[in-house]
Amino acid sequence: RPRVLSGIQPTAGSFHLGNYLGAVRQWVALQESHDAFYMVVDLHAITVPQDPAELRANTRLAVAQLLAAGLDPERCTLFVQSHVPEHAQLGWIMNCLTGFGEASRMTQFKDKSAKQGADRATVGLFTYPVLQVADILLYQADQVPVGEDQRQHIELTRDLAERFNGRYGQTFTVPAPYILKETGKIFDLQDPAVKMSKSASTPKGLVNLLDDPKATAKKVRSAVTDTDTVIRFDPEKKPGVSNLLGIYSTLTGTAVADLEQKYEGQGYGALKTDLAEVMVEFVTPFRTRTQEYLDDPETLDSLLAKGAEKARAVAAETLAQTYDRMGLLPAK
Ligand code: ATP
Ligand code: MG
């Protein structure tokens, strides 16, 4: 079975629709066909200040949401990044392999740091793509199911894997991105030019899965479309409508072409009202299931302990090999 690895940050509490459609939904599907490793990346979350109690709660909340979305700890390895110390260790090695200019070209850092200002943005935020490289290479992942915004980081991962292999001998699998065209980038409902994001969306444009379903329905009904009235999938000219059609199509399993036909001659109102209903039907049971998992933190923690143990077995082997190849003296 080919191996996949991916992660999600325990920030902001709720996952949003982009996280689900762009990433988590694929994780659930891939656990059936792949040797799957999924983690809550708390070490990435702390690249910006986090309240300790909130971070702890949000980490469990992220795990509960992953289970509610359909991850099954019997079918995949589910763990918390900081439970596997090899991530930070290989992260350092990868920092020593990355060019400063190379890291400076990462657009996510540029975007995120621009918002914070040069002195508030941390060095951790600067090197977080490099930690992500370590996350992936530790597990010798063949594929990385993520959203489109992560493509550049997977490219960096490939470059560093090849660099290391070239310098020290074949050590790392060179991974490929696994990004779906239809859902790789879900846009902010109020600004269809920018991706929906935990950290940067407008509140009205961000669909959080754990929000009150009524509020979610309202956000969908007031999504920005355009001044035209034709319901047609055309991301270039009609980004707002296309975003809604993509979401609708994926949540219901209906082809976009069929949706275009269904709504022919009708206004945007009909499309939005129906999609709002589809969303409510999706998020309502999701919220209930998430709460059920949260209500039993002991079970959550014990499944995370098992996950970390499975992950560590793989990660420790890769790290030992890496140290050895580089000439770090083994401890006797
Ligand atoms: P932040 O803005 O703080 O980076 P985020 O919304 O990007 O938060 P992450 O935890 O960084 O959330 O991302 C988890 C996964 O969700 C990643 O695979 C990412 O590519 C994917 N993802 C995030 N936003 C979108 C989106 N708008 N459309 C599709 N996939 C997305
Ligand atoms: Mg992100």
From TrEMBL:
* Cell compartment(s), UniProt: Cytoplasm
Please tell me where L-tryptophan binds in this chain.
D135
Q: Which reaction does it catalyse?
A: tRNA(Trp) + L-tryptophan + ATP = L-tryptophyl-tRNA(Trp) + AMP + diphosphate + H(+)
Q: Which SUPFAM superfamilies match?
A: Nucleotidylyl transferase
Motif 'KMSKS' region: where in chain: 195-199
Q: EC number(s) in its UniProt entry?
A: 6.1.1.2
- A GO molecular-function term, please? tryptophan-tRNA ligase activity
Please give the InterPro entries that the UniProt record associates with this protein: aa-tRNA-synth_I_CS, aa-tRNA-synth_Ic, Rossmann-like_a/b/a_fold, Trp-tRNA-ligase, Trp-tRNA-ligase_bac-type, Trp-tRNA_synthetase
Residues spanning the membrane: none
Q: Which CDD domains match?
A: TrpRS_core (cd00806)
What Pfam families does the record point to?
A: tRNA-synt_1b
Q: Which residues bind ATP?
A: Q9, P10, T11, G18, N19, G147, E148, D149, I186, K195, M196, S197, K198, S199
According to the lineage, what is the superkingdom?
Answer: Bacteria
Instruction: Alphabetically list the UniProt keywords.
Output: Aminoacyl-tRNA synthetase, ATP-binding, Cytoplasm, Ligase, Nucleotide-binding, Protein biosynthesis
Please tell me where this protein is predominantly located: cytoplasm
- Describe, as the record does, how this protein assembles with itself and its partners: Homodimer.
Q: Briefly state the protein's biological role.
A: Catalyzes the attachment of tryptophan to tRNA(Trp).
Family statement drawn from the similarity comment of this UniProt entry: Belongs to the class-I aminoacyl-tRNA synthetase family.
Its recorded name reads Tryptophan--tRNA ligase
Q: Which organism is it from?
A: Streptomyces clavifer
The major lineage groups are: Bacteria, Bacillati, Actinomycetota, Actinomycetes, Kitasatosporales
Name of the gene:
trpS
